[in-house]
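Board notes (copied after class):
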Amino acid sequence: MKCSSCNNQAIEGQDLCSVCAKLRQIPGLAPTRQVGLNLAKRTEQIFLAFPYTHNSPKERRNRYSACLAMANEIQRKTNSPVFAPVVYGHPFAVEYNAGIDFKTWQELNTTILVQWASVLIVGTCPGWDKSKGILSELDCASAHDKPIFLVRPDMRNFPEWSFR
């Protein structure tokens, strides 16, 4: 059985995976919480978290491409600015040999998430629930009472209320 929020493998006898089940235990937070968010009436500032770090340069390139496509689609559908650390950092890693791990980008990402973003969207591609960066960003968004949405990269579960 698949998780009803992110399409990962659900816990036996439940409709959620272990990460989504943990998110639901945080007071006032649910993976698809929609409180106070209406993209049809105002512009949100969206932080798009997506797994990136991998030993294979080809896999990192694939993740970058998938994140770029997802960021583009979110921006197109919502007319809201999207900051995606993977899209921002990948060219630095490729062209200038910048770090590819979360530690390299943690301070920048946390600053943008706390001071700029109004919502966190997590791209739930394989590995998202084990990503140190995403888990840290989930904790940070929760601590700062930012709405969190788990969205599949194919956008099939992107909230309809956000379409214009």
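Comment from the instructor: The beta strands are 46-49, 82-83, 119-123, 148-151. Residues 57-78 form the longest helix (22 residues).
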